[in-house]
Design a protein that fits this description.
The chain contains nine helices and eleven strands. The chain has helices at 14-26, 95-113, 136-143, 179-193, 229-235, 256-260, 264-271, 308-312, 349-360; strands spanning 43-44, 50-51, 80-87, 129-134, 170-176, 196-204, 245-253, 324-325, 328-331, 337-345, 372-378. The strands form two sheets. Strands 3, 4, 5, 6, 7, 8, 9, 10 and 11 form a nine-stranded antiparallel sheet that branches. Strands 1-2 form a two-stranded antiparallel ribbon. The chain starts with 13 loop residues before the first helix and ends in a 16-residue tail after the last strand. The relative contact order is 0.18. Residues 213-381 form the Dyp-type peroxidase C-terminal domain.
Length: 394
């Protein structure tokens, strides 16, 4: 995992704010209220919805709405991701303190998206999004044990985790087409919270080829996902809290060299798709789902029984719908490459049941493991009149 110096991109008043936050959060009865920052100008379009613009005049991604940005919008992945998982104190602060802290994060997100935040160092935050979530401890304490993502993930067969790389209380997920801007934004937000960093990750995505970009294995990643409003409503957006969703994040090293040493045919049978086109081995195009019943003349499945596409498909498991996967590759040096897996869903059950199927029989799992893992309730969207932390007060 990569880490950063959180003070490097602090706004001019950040050191005093950071000291105040640290004192407030760790005190026995202290609050997390801080002074108000500057309000960024938003260009209201003809629709009446605020449309942020960056300092260079390039449209940004509006952070406001029923849902947070960075889940289903923008549709195409940004080129860079910076992720930070933070910890609240062992003695959880009060509901209002945590809600106030999240409100401040939301306000800082707005200034980052429009490009006016000093923490960006003048960089243009093209298509910048910030997605904020809270971990099981926070969700259970303030929203109840039945809230989405209120329970930690179970252990899985390929887990290689340590206490320092499992779970966490607050997620900052920053994505942008400009890598340095993403890095500066996550540093600014980390400083804004004043919280300890549990683990971090950095990743990248290539340009889309058709419906999805390719990962380090050379295959398209994220072809079978919900795309329409109806599909998103059915499997991604939580019924309560309204506007929320859940996110599972797993850092998965992959033995890229060993996978790539196989003949292309063996690679394709492991995945269940053609490497060149992304089409399923059962035929069609990359836009088509696999025909899991299709067989050769001698009775062999065209999509092998242990192919990743088959094992991850919801139909054989009796599952309803698809996860919204928004994964990135990472390469931290020779032998340190892999996938930063990210999947959104109305709850974490679909991911858990799918991963258990992969553990049972999936040819791709032999090349992977998980060295960091966490789940979060991604908070409902926010507006200038209703802060990011409002759901904790409802």
């Amino acid at each position: 995992m990569t880490g950063h110096d959180a003070d490097e991109t602090a706004a001019p008043d950040a050191p005093s704010r950071r000291r105040f936050l640290l004192g407030a959060v760790t005190g026995a009865a202290g609050g997390v209220l801080v002074g108000a920052g500057g309000v960024a100008a938003l260009d209201g379009g003809s629709t009446g919805r605020a449309t942020p613009t960056t300092s260079a005049g390039t449209p940004g991604v509006d952070p406001h709405g029923d849902h947070q940005a960075g889940v289903d919008r923008p549709a195409a992945l940004q080129r860079h991701v910076e992720l930070a998982v933070l910890d609240l104190p062992a003695r959880l602060p009060s509901r209002d303190d945590v809600a106030d802290l999240l409100d401040r994060v939301g306000e800082r997100v707005t200034t980052l998206v429009v490009g006016t935040d000093p923490g960006l160092g003048g960089l243009t935050p093209t298509r910048l999004t910030v997605t904020v979530g809270v971990g099981p401890r926070v969700a259970a304490a303030f929203l109840g044990d039945d809230a989405p993502a209120a329970q930690p993930l179970p252990a899985f067969a390929r887990d290689d985790l340590s206490p320092a790389t499992e779970g966490g209380d607050v997620l900052l997920l920053v994505r942008c087409d400009v890598g340095p801007a993403a890095a500066r934004a996550v540093l600014a937000l980390r400083d804004e919270t004043g919280l300890d960093v549990r683990w971090t990750a950095t990743g990248f995505a290539g340009p889309p080829e058709g419906l999805a970009a390719r990962n380090l294995l050379g295959f398209h990643d994220g072809l079978s996902i919900p795309r329409t409003d109806a599909e998103l409503a059915a499997t991604v957006w939580s019924r309560t809290p309204r506007g929320a969703t859940t996110l599972v994040v797993r850092r998965m090293p992959i033995d890229v060299a060993r996978f790539g040493a196989q003949p292309v045919d063996a690679q394709q049978r492991t995945i269940g798709r053609e490497r060149a086109t992304g089409a399923p081995l059962s035929g069609g195009t990359q836009a088509d789902g696999p025909d899991l019943n299709a067989k050769t003349d001698d009775g062999q499945y065209l999509v092998p029984a242990d192919a990743h596409v088959r094992r991850a498909h919801p139909l054989p498991a009796g599952l309803d719908g698809l996860m919204l996967r928004r994964s990135y590759s990472y390469a931290d040096g020779p032998g340190a490459e892999g996938l930063l897996f990210m999947a959104f869903g109305a709850d974490t059950d679909l991911f858990v049941r799918t991963q258990q199927r992969l553990d049972e029989q999936d040819a791709l799992m032999a090349f992977t493991r998980a060295t960091a893992s966490a789940s979060f309730l991604v908070l409902p969207g926010f507006t200038p009149g209703r802060g990011l932390g409002s759901v904790l007060r409802d």
